[in-house]
Amino acid sequence: MDNFITAGRVLNSFGLNGQVKIDVYLEDLKLLKTVEVFLLGNSLLKRKINFLKNTKKSTWIAAIADVKIKEQADQLKGQFIFFEKKYLPSLMTNEFYYEDLKGLQIKIDGGLQNGFVNDVFNFGSGEVLEVSLDDSGATRYIPFDKDNVSEIDLVNRTIILTPIKGLLS
Fold this sequence. Notes:
Structural class: mainly beta
Oligomer: single chain
Helix content: under 10%
CATH topology of the largest domain: Elongation Factor Tu (Ef-tu), domain 3
CATH class of the largest domain: Mainly Beta
Largest sheet: 7 strands, antiparallel
Number of strands: 13
Shape: elongated
Order of helices and strands: EEHEEEEHEHEEEEEE
Radius of gyration: 20 Å
């Protein structure tokens, strides 16, 4: 699954002609039109999906190839929709996709603690790394900024943290 991005999840069927409502997780909605083939569910079935109408915020009405009746659409409820990372736009230097940061090993600059990144969040005031450190089972939240993160090495899958004093105590 490392080569795939989760685009959204089927919420339920819509109408009698096999259309579905999809909760879209993407910020860049142009991807809905540029991705040629999506992968559906745990079996990663390749399907063309035509996103027809945005009904509210992240909810879209869509037609999935080979899904022609409501009963077929009903069976897709809860299924995740993925696409290959190759469709993502290129990033500038020092820009990262959240998915690329998950699982990276944490090294604390000048310290003995290590750990890994569980997740990345943005609660409105900036990005935050959710990390687990080796010395405790507790989850810590580290602001994802220049004051706390000194280096990201995607090739070696590591992040060097320089947390401000008191952040980890």
